[in-house]
UniProtKB/TrEMBL annotation:
Zn(2+) 2 binds at residues 181, 212, 322. The active site is at 211 (proton acceptor). GO terms for biological process: proteolysis. Belongs to the peptidase M42 family. Residues 112-133 are annotated as: Disordered. Zn(2+) 1 binds at residues 67, 181, 234. It comes from Halovivax ruber (strain DSM 18193 / JCM 13892 / XH-70). This is Peptidase family protein. InterPro entries: Peptidase_M42, Peptidase_M42_aminopept, Peptidase_M42_dom2. Coiled coil: none annotated.
Length: 355
């Protein structure tokens, strides 16, 4: 059984707080507040990455990264219809599946405050057969604020941000809501930082920005932070539902933290993932191995032309990724905190990860 006890109030606050790529301000404040209680020093950079550092007793340095941003939208155009109502057209920030967007509630973040809205969806009995069978497209999405066009134009500007409006709920053994990607790993990282005391290694806990639009924050941070070892944390696909064959599951909820072997952006260092596996077995922490066919993570941000770094990654299995009902298993979250903590407490620079 996992030893970490989940702080569900903190998970709820992190997941329900809004922060799209490039505009992670509200989440960044939560991270900074948490770091103030657990690390020796905190700094931010020009992109908005936050680094909380715990100083170690030796020269060995480790970076741990989890991203703060969630997928969302930016207002690209304000449209008026013939009745004088105002609607918002959108540009996506991150990879949306348009099938899940219709009839969702949203929040539009304006300079003067937040406005509630809905993504419109015509009733099916008013559509012809061709319209009902058409493949949805993100470009077809629009927001109805329930306001006259002149009010919309007064209160909303091109460039305002939009996030999904969804609460975080407990469903059986699962926690479900929006932005589990990647706030649940951000939670695990912050909880690990709070648990670490007097490490041998200096540990840089990095809350990164703009992961959902191309790992941009981590790539910049990977130049600025120069660790001997880098560990990324992100959710991963759990297709353990009826419409998928077992070989397509990638991971399964409840089977433990996922030790990444590869994804679309990185092949993790063999000596790193083998050490994760060894420690998990020694500590009797449930784990599974992750081979993700596509998709990238911040792990790749620390492998670049400025220098080769050994890298590893821990992932939390996540059903229904990039929807408003992303779902993770509470035991997988706890196992991730347990394994990351155990791993970092053993890092003293004596393990050679080079090949």
């Amino acid at each position: 059984m996992p030893t970490h006890s989940l702080d569900e109030a903190m998970i709820t606050e992190l997941t329900e707080t809004s922060g799209v790529p490039g505009y992670e301000d509200r989440v960044r404040t939560l991270v900074q507040d948490a770091f103030d209680e657990s690390v020796d020093r905190v700094r931010t950079d020009a992109m908005g990455n936050v680094v909380g550092t715990i100083d170690g007793s030796g020269d060995h340095e480790v970076a741990v990264a989890a991203h703060m941003d969630e997928i969302g939208f930016m207002v690209s155009h304000i449209e008026s219809d013939e009745d004088g109502s105002g609607f918002l057209e959108l540009d996506p920030l991150g990879g949306w599946d348009p099938r899940v967007l219709k009839a969702q509630r949203v929040t539009v973040h304006t300079e003067d405050g937040d406005l509630p809205g809905v993504i419109g969806s015509p009733p099916p009995h008013t559509m012809d057969a061709e319209e009902r069978e058409a493949t949805p497209d993100v470009d077809d999405v629009y927001i109805d604020l329930g306001l006259p066009a002149e009010d919309v134009e007064d209160r909303v500007a091109v460039g305002d941000l939009v996030t999904m409006d969804q609460s975080t709920e407990t469903v059986g053994e699962l926690l479900t809501g929006k932005a589990m990607d990647d706030r649940i790993c951000l939670y695990a990282m912050l909880q690990t930082a709070a648990a670490i005391e007097d490490p041998d290694a200096t540990i840089h806990f990095c809350a990164t920005v703009q992961e959902e639009v191309g790992l941009r924050g981590a790539r910049a941070l990977g130049v600025d932070v120069d660790p001997d070892l880098a560990i990324a944390m992100d959710v991963t696909v759990a297709n353990d539902v009826p419409e998928f064959d077992e070989g397509e599951h990638v991971t399964r909820l409840g089977d433990g933290t996922a030790i990444k072997l590869k994804d679309g952006s990185v092949i993790t260092s063999p000596k790193v993932h083998r050490r994760f596996k060894s420690i998990a077995e020694d500590e009797e922490i449930d784990y599974q191995l992750e081979v993700l066919p596509a998709g990238g993570t911040d792990t790749a941000g620390f492998q670049h032309t400025h220098g080769a770094k050994p890298v590893g990654a821990l992932s939390i299995p996540n059903r229904y990724m990039h929807t408003v009902t992303e779902a993770v298993h509470r035991d997988d979250v706890a196992a991730t905190v347990d394994l990351l903590t155990a791993f970092l407490e053993r890092e003293d620079g004596t393990v050679d990860y080079t090949l």
